[in-house]
Amino acid sequence: MNDLLTRRLAFRDAVSDEDRAVIERLASTVQALPAGVDVIGEGVHQSASRILIEGWVCRYKTRASGGRQINQLHVPGDFFDLHSFLLKRLDHSIATLTPCRIAVVPHETLRAVTEEHPHLSRLLWLSTALDSANTREWMTVMGRTSAVSQVAHIFCELYLRLEVVGLAADHRYALPISQQDVADARGLTGVHVNRMLRQLREMGLVEWTRGQVTIHDWDELTRVAEFDPTYLNLWREPR
Amino acid sequence: MNDLLTRRLAFRDAVSDEDRAVIERLASTVQALPAGVDVIGEGVHQSASRILIEGWVCRYKTRASGGRQINQLHVPGDFFDLHSFLLKRLDHSIATLTPCRIAVVPHETLRAVTEEHPHLSRLLWLSTALDSANTREWMTVMGRTSAVSQVAHIFCELYLRLEVVGLAADHRYALPISQQDVADARGLTGVHVNRMLRQLREMGLVEWTRGQVTIHDWDELTRVAEFDPTYLNLWREPR
DNA sequence: CGTGAGATTGAGAATTCTCAAAGGTCGTGG
DNA sequence: CCACGACCTTTGAGAATTCTCAATCTCACG
After folding, report:
1. Nearest nucleotide (CA of B192 to C1')
2. Residues of chain A with C-beta less than 8 angstroms from the C-beta of B130
3. pLDDT classification of B1: cutoffs 50, 70, 90
4. What mean pLDDT comes out for the span B93-100?
């Protein structure tokens, strides 16, 4: 059940059998949730963290003026609110974008890991650090690139992240979310994202129909997106 | 020397005498750096992390198209590249904006902390989680608020962060960076930031001359900025 | 086959950017 | 103590990008 998490961590450092065994026993329960519901509300005290097993969830913040900013999209294997172990109350909300299955890991269990398994602790800490690197990249894309690049970028990133967990191959993957969701992830309007999608389609780079993404020209897409996957940290290094 | 770090952590959880003693012995050396130099280059292998003692540093990314995005501004007491302990190679660069004094903490020392001092480890992990919360807030501000709000927001945030380390009081503080730096922190142009500053000045909210910020109307400034300090996590909770 | 959410398109408006020039400030060296 | 140069701030004018509002179209699902 936590194979995906192990796999994701193993892309960044060796995971010993002992660590692997501890990971297997992290989850206390599994939740099934429908699409479009809040998993975690902003500011609500948490006593467990969650691993996404199946489906799509997003982390988002809302502003007084009403806008929604999606700070992160999560794919299966992501320990998407591990930071609530430290923060206790999150500065943002988390919602399902599709029906999801989610593994619940009590903070008590995580605390025990930090007391008894320092290497695994560091891997989990690394996991939150990767999350930050992702947020920085998104921020940089939002602040310093054109709307077409911003939209192209998300297709590139998701392809590599899904590939790691075996959910993308041959430049195709399922992306069952709405154009408005992408807009909220980039600080754009839904209408404008739609126009940028048309542009990318007409350029022959990528198509996104009926929840299926097909990348026709990876090299050119990454060029338009100014996509450099370094921030995903897809290499092993002792931690 | 690491008083500021202790102080910053103590705002979020009790710091025991033992933890305090360990913090005192973290730094191996202290560096003095001039303004405008890179402390850490993107992708360069790191074997130590750094605490800012005095001055201003920024973390930034550059894009192929040439733009610079400042992802974070740091004030004294910030353990500004603690995440390099996990990542080893950062996805961004770090530069001084003013002359700085910086304490260097070897990764070996941090590793020993994770092996022997789990509570302090969690506090350090928390410290990186706070950093992420900050990035998320900036991202949200960039994506979903007007340029005036974005500029107003930075004045609000820095006031509270500087107050924590005793560098701001009476709605005044030193901000010896350029308007272009603020523009790069918000994904705007320098020219536009200048116009927004005039607007804020003419509204009687805040003045920024010769590196000195004076907030004339905190309540209204926070309203314009849609500033809600929750994300700064300025309360104590057991971690 | 009707319904509703999401996608698509058009037209005009608002915000922000670009380019360019002028005005200030501050430290350095004569 | 003044002059100079470097860098930063300020302002103007026009252009580009992105947004807003509104209507129509499509498609999955009951």
Report:
1. C16
2. 87
3. low
4. 95
* A31 contacts chain B (CB < 8 A): no
Query: What is the average pLDDT across A41-60?
Result: 96
- Are the Cβ atoms of B132 and A132 closer than 8 angstroms? yes
The pLDDT confidence band at residue A1, using thresholds 50, 70 and 90, is: low
Secondary structure of residue B22 in the 3-state scheme: helix
Tell me the C-alpha distance between A104 and A133, whole Å: 24
What single-letter DSSP state applies at residue A19?
H
Phi, then psi, of A143 in degrees rounded to 5:
-80, -30
- Chain A residue with CA closest to B123: the answer is A86
DSSP β-bridge partners for residue A168: A173
Interatomic distance A156 CA / C18 C1' (Å): 30
Cα angle value B201/B205/B210 (rounded, 5°): 55
pLDDT digits (tens, 9 = 90+) for A143-153: 999 999 999 99
Across the range A182-201, mean pLDDT stands at: 97
User: Would you call A140 and B64 a contact, using CB atoms and an 8 Å cutoff?
Assistant: no
Q: Which among B49, B19, B26, B24 has a CA at the least distance from the CA of B118?
A: B19
Q: Which sign, positive or negative, has the C-alpha torsion B73, B46, A78, A120?
A: negative
Strand (E) or helix (H) holding A49: strand A48-54
Least confident of A4-13, A56-65, A107-116, B80-89: A4-13
> Three-class SS of residue A156?
helix
Tell me which nucleotides of strand D come within 7 A of a protein CB: 7-13, 17-22, 27-28
Tell me how far apart the alpha carbons of residues A102 and A31 are, in angstroms, rounded to a whole number. Answer: 5
Give nucleotides in strand C with any atom < 7 A to a protein C-beta: 5-11, 15-20, 25-26
The total of other beta-carbon atoms located within 10 Å of residue A235's CB is 11
pTM: 0.95
- Bridge partners (DSSP) of residue A62 are A68
The pLDDT value recorded for residue B4 is 87
- Report the distance separating Cα B6 and Cα B20, nearest Å: 7
- Length of chain B (residues): 239
Does residue B147 reach within 7 angstroms of strand C, measured from its CB? yes
Task: Please tell me the predicted confidence (pLDDT) of residue A15.
Answer: 92
Instruction: Determine the Cα angle at A55 with ends A50 and A59, to 5°.
Output: 55
Distances A221 to A15, A227, B19, B110 between C-alpha atoms, Å: 34, 8, 49, 40
Distance (Å) of CA A68 to CA A92, A178, B127, B140:
11, 14, 26, 8
Cα–Cα distance between B117 and B121 in angstroms, integer?
Answer: 6
**Taking CB atoms and an 8 Å cutoff, what residues of chain A touch B118?**
114-115, 118, 121
Is the minimum CB–CB distance between A44 and chain B shorter than 8 Å? no
